[in-house]
Amino acid sequence: MTVTALAAGLGMTGAVKYARLMRLRAADAAVTVASAALMPLVAWRMPGEFGWALAGALVVAALVPVLGGDAATRARRAVAGAFGVAWLAALML
Question: How many domains does the chain have?
Answer without folding.
Answer: 1
